[in-house]
């Protein structure tokens, strides 16, 4: 973090959004937003002060009084307009995302599009926020439930999906009648802020959506603030665990999507070409910086002989800046991220894994300062090695071997993480046994990254998730609303004089 105070600079500053206005922070702490392919400084982002966080929450609290009573149809129409604006600006959003995050332009468009799907889902909120009615549950008595918004909610988002994950959060929270305070990643907040501008253009009233930037102090302020009722988090296991416990102690609802070690089981009857293409794309796409990346392959039986062909596939991938046409693997987000991945590769070699393909220090003409690591593949990997036990979050695929499907299932279930897993096979029986016996929240069958569409909920499990309810889908409606149960009886002239009833039940 760069600490600056009253230093003249021609680099743009990222603004806060408080009560409908984009304002310059009064902080003395700033962080450079850096292009990971060139190291050029694109902007400076402020680490908001406590007073600024308080002001954002106060604006959201005030706006909630009227927003919660805004008709569902009115709220939904804002998101119909919002999805149209996102579509119209997709190219601009993708280019901005690539510049600050590094992923390829097609992948950046996918980042925006998967968030857009949730915005479309928010526009259909009227079908999801329905209560229940029990008619005549006792004589002349009806009981019904209402799904009412909580109040001020907050979201803390990571660097790897700066469009998709904010769009997982604030549209669903706001569509259900809440107001929102968003804290984007300080490493790449620019595309998030452009999405926020479009949200205001779509008609979100002032104070309903607010944005603060910062690091640990701002995260803690969100966790501790008495007026925030719910916190949604996506990021590392270390930070997510901290957020969950700290916010829970403040009596908040909390959902934390965290780290992963996603295994792909390959049976020897799988379609080889399809499987190798899928595995290479899911392992090395986005430079491996996906919480759902297929970072771990478990080759069963004769499939272990496919390693040379997998290496050959990985060698064909083009490493370059994300904006360059034909790029398959862009840079990592920061110099520190690159150094960490390189150190883990060294550790893997030292601990006895076989380095089948070394992606360190690739030659990328014109981008010699970029944070590049090429596709890297290890075989002979075993539990207990750092490259297996840790989430590498880089373009590194580790390969383990198993003699049978049962052994592969046992291996995966022994891993503490449960974000996603997949199996490649042409056997329906094997696929069915895998999906039933595997203890992982999201399962793909011949699909390497089984992230569900917004009609369903993101359902990571075990050490990859804290909190019972996932983002988007039906589950998030339960997260962002509270159920109020109403029992009513209306008396007519014949029942007005029934006498005193001292029993607990209604008749």
UniProtKB/TrEMBL annotation:
CDD domains: ALDH_F6_MMSDH. It comes from the Bacteria. It holds the Pfam family Aldedh. Gene3D superfamilies: Aldehyde Dehydrogenase, Chain A, domain 1, Aldehyde Dehydrogenase, Chain A, domain 2. Its EC number is 1.2.1.27. InterPro entries: Ald_DH/histidinol_DH, Ald_DH_C, Ald_DH_CS_CYS, Ald_DH_N, Aldehyde_DH_dom, MeMal-semiAld_DH. PROSITE patterns: ALDEHYDE_DEHYDR_CYS. It is an enzyme of class 1 (oxidoreductase). Keywords: NAD, Oxidoreductase. The keyword Thylakoid does not apply. The keyword NAD applies. Residues 22-486 form the Aldehyde dehydrogenase domain. NCBIfam families: MMSDH. Belongs to the aldehyde dehydrogenase family. This is methylmalonate-semialdehyde dehydrogenase (CoA acylating). The lineage of its organism: Bacteria, Pseudomonadati, Pseudomonadota, Gammaproteobacteria, Lysobacterales.
């Amino acid at each position: 973090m760069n600490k600056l105070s009253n230093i003249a600079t021609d680099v743009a500053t990222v603004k806060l959004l408080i009560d409908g206005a984009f304002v310059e922070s009064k902080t003395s702490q700033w962080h450079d937003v850096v292009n990971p392919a060139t190291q050029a400084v694109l902007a400076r982002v402020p680490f908001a002060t406590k007073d600024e966080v308080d002001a954002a929450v106060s604006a959201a609290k005030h706006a909630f009084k009227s927003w919660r009573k805004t008709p569902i149809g009115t709220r939904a129409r804002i998101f119909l307009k919002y999805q149209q604006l996102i579509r119209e600006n997709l190219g601009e959003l993708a280019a901005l995302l690539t510049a600050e995050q590094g992923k390829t332009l097609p992948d950046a468009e996918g980042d925006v599009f998967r968030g857009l799907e949730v915005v479309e889902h928010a526009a259909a909120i009227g079908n999801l926020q329905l209560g229940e009615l029990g008619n005549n549950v006792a004589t002349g008595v009806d009981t019904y439930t209402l799904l009412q918004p909580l109040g001020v909610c907050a979201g803390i988002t990571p660097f790897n999906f700066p469009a998709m994950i904010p769009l997982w959060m604030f549209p669903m929270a706001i569509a259900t009648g809440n107001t929102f305070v968003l804290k984007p990643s300080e490493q790449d907040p620019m595309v998030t802020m452009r999405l926020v501008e479009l949200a205001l253009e779509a008609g979100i009233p002032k104070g309903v959506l607010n944005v603060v930037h910062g690091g640990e102090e701002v995260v803690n302020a969100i966790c501790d603030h008495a007026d925030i009722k719910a916190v949604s988090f996506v990021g590392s296991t270390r930070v997510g665990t901290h957020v969950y416990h700290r916010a829970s102690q403040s009596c908040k609802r909390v959902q934390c999507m965290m780290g992963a070690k996603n295994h792909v089981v390959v049976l020897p009857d799988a379609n080889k070409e399809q499987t190798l293409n899928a595995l290479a794309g899911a392992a090395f796409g986005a430079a491996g910086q996906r919480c759902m990346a297929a970072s771990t392959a478990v080759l069963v039986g004769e499939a272990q002989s496919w390693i040379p062909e997998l290496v050959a596939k990985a060698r064909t991938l083009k490493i370059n800046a994300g904006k360059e046409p034909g790029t398959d693997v862009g840079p990592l987000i920061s110099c520190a991220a690159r150094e960490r991945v390189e150190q883990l590769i060294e550790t893997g070699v030292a601990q006895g894994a076989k380095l089948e393909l070394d992606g360190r220090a690739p030659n990328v003409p014109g981008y010699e300062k970029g944070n590049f690591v090429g596709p890297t593949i290890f075989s002979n990997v075993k539990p207990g090695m750092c490259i297996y036990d840790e989430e590498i979050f880089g373009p590194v695929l580790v390969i383990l071997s198993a003699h049978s499907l049962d052994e592969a299932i046992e291996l995966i279930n022994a891993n503490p993480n449960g974000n996603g897993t997949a199996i490649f096979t042409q056997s329906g029986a094997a696929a069915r046994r895998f999906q039933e016996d595997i203890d992982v929240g999201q399962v793909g069958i011949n699909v390497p990254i089984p992230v569900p569409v917004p009609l369903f909920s993101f359902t990571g499990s075990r050490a990859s998730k804290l909190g019972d309810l996932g983002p988007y889908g039906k589950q998030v409606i339960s997260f962002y609303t509270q159920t109020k149960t109403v029992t009513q009886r209306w008396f007519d002239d014949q029942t007005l004089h029934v006498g005193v009833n001292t029993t607990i039940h209604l008749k």
